[in-house]
Structures
1.
Amino acid sequence: MTVDGPYTCKYCGRTFKSLQSLKSHLQNCPKRSLPREFSKGKVTFICYMNPRRKVVNAVNSLLRKPDFNEQQLLGVVRYLQENGEVHRILMPEINKN
C-alpha cells in the first residue's frame, strides 16, 4: 500500500508533493528543533537543533577530552550555528559548582 502526496510536516504544517521532499525538509525544520545541553567547566549552552546523532556524538566526544575548555566549546557552538545545525542558542548558564 502506498500513500500519494501531498505530504505535510507535522511540526510546521508545510505541504510537499513528494515524500522525499518532506524527508529533506525535516532535516532542517526549525519547529522540529529539540534542546541539547552541552556543558564544560562552569559553562552550559542549550542549543535548539534537529536530532543529528553524528553531530551530537562529535560534540560530546570533544567534551570528554580533558584539554577541551569553555572557550573551545563556544567556538564549536558558534560553528554549528553558522552552518545551520543550531537554530537557537540560549545564553550560556554559569554553573555554580
Note: Residues 7 and 24 are 12 Å apart (CA to CA).
2.
Amino acid sequence: MNPNDFKKLVRSYSADDIISDEPHVTLRCNENNIALEDIKKTILDQDADLVRVVRDRAQVYKIYYKLTRHRELKIVLDLLTHKRINIRTVRILDDRFRIGKIQRQRF
C-alpha cells in the first residue's frame, strides 16, 4: 500500500474510531515523550508527512511519519476490527534505526 492509498483509507475515520492496546501504547508514548492524542491527530492528518507504509501481515501495517530531518515516527497498527484502527505500538526512530541508512566510517 502506498502512502496516498493509506491517506484515502484513513479519511473515513474519526478520532473516536482509533483505539489502542492500552497498557503497552501508553508506556511507549511515555518513553518517547509523545501523547496518544498527538498520535491520533497525526494518523488522521492528511497533511502529515507520511514517508512509507509497510504491510507486516494481513491487515497489519507499519507506518512511518517524518518528524525532522533525522527522526521518524513509527506506528504499528491493525485494521482487524471493523471500522476501527487499533494502535499496537509507537516508537520514534533516529537515524541509526532508519531503513537503508548506511553510516560512513572513517579510517
Note: Strands lie at 18-20, 50-57, 60-66, 72-78, 85-93.
3.
Amino acid sequence: MSIIKLDYDEKEHFLSFPNKLNVIKSIIDLDIVYINVYVSKGGNHHVLIHLLNEFNDLEVLCLQQILGSDWVRGAFNLRRVRAGQKNWNILFNEHLEVNK
C-alpha cells in the first residue's frame, strides 16, 4: 500500500487536482482505496491518496509532483530520498504537548 501526500499552497492547484487525478488514472493503473482532504491552519489543502498499489519512493515522489504538490516540499523530499531517510514523505508535523 502506498500513500500519496499532496500539499497545495495555491487554491487553483487544489481545484485542478480532480482533473489531474482522472487523467493520471487513465494512464497509470491507480487502485485508490480512499482519499482524505484536510485544510491546514493557514488555509492550504492537504490531500492523502491511499492506494493498494505498491510504488517505490521515487515513484511516489513523481506522482506527488505530477499531481501538482508544492514544488519546494518536493525538492526537500527528493533530498530526503537521496539521503536514504526512511520517513522522507513529511506532509505536516504533529506537535506534542509535554506535561511539565
Note: The first strand starts at residue 2 and ends at 8.
